[in-house]
Request: fold
Amino acid sequence: MELLDENIAILGAGNLGIAIAEGIVEEGLKKADQVYLTRRNLKHVAHLADQGFLTVEDNKLAVESSGYIFLCVQPKQLASLIEQINPVLTEKHVLVSVITGVSIDEIKGLLKVDVPVVRAMPNTAIAIGESMTCIACNDSKELALTIQKVFNSLGQTLVIDEKLMQAATVLGASGIAFFMRYLRAATQGGIQMGFHSDEAQLIAVQTAKGAASLILENGNHPEVEIDKVTTPQGCTIAGLNEMEHQGLSSALIKGLMVSYDKIKNIK
Ligand SMILES: NC(=O)c1ccc[n+]([C@@H]2O[C@H](COP(=O)([O-])OP(=O)(O)OC[C@H]3O[C@@H](n4cnc5c(N)ncnc54)[C@H](OP(=O)(O)O)[C@@H]3O)[C@@H](O)[C@H]2O)c1
Reply:
């Protein structure tokens, strides 16, 4: 089944579902009238119907008319959604789940037919085409690559083993919150040094973007870029060492591990 031949259904067109749908159309993978969007309250997607998206309440209709089915509801809403679509799912469909913490086996356990299932873990930057999306598929490598094509249009992607999906959730999806906290702290420091909050925020945010872009573009280890900024006996190394004395790296790693332990025990 070629991705380009089939309609796409986004079941649960909330924050993430809408961002995926808009990205797919913006990148020309599909036209709006080849993308079904479902939710129980259609008034929230009326503006997308105006743009040509096929907005419907009926999940079965969307599934019957599509090949690729994106599951974008909250984890607790999944079982009843699958119950609705089970009568119309066939082996020809492909399910793509972005639902946090629900394994491929758990999804397959709810299905009445043997449908290939791909898991994808994007982050909220998908709304601006800057997601980091990790993808796992136990059915076929080819299928993982097909779905990777969709998410490539919405940021960077990596195909991973499903056993790393929880780690990917912490590092990539929760990671947005962790970096936001750094940005807030840097902004507060900037204000204490004399900037207005909007100026401090712009300096902090653009500097963070520049730091990330340097690594993305040249592939250097972060320490190589740090060496370029730390003059002997200068202000940068003094600040950096004080941050480490206060446990910066240790706090970050410990926070990631606490988050990871938590996600492993969420059920
Ligand atoms: N946000 C993130 O950073 C992120 C990252 C990776 C993965 N995820 C996962 O992605 C999923 C969606 O997240 P989100 O932030 O987009 O949540 P959301 O905004 O709550 O979207 C879920 C949507 O599903 C709709 N829905 C619920 N039951 C439905 C049903 N039976 N049929 C059709 N539509 C239904 C809801 O709308 P109605 O109430 O109108 O039906 C709602 O708009 C979650 O499982 C989350 O864990 C989120």
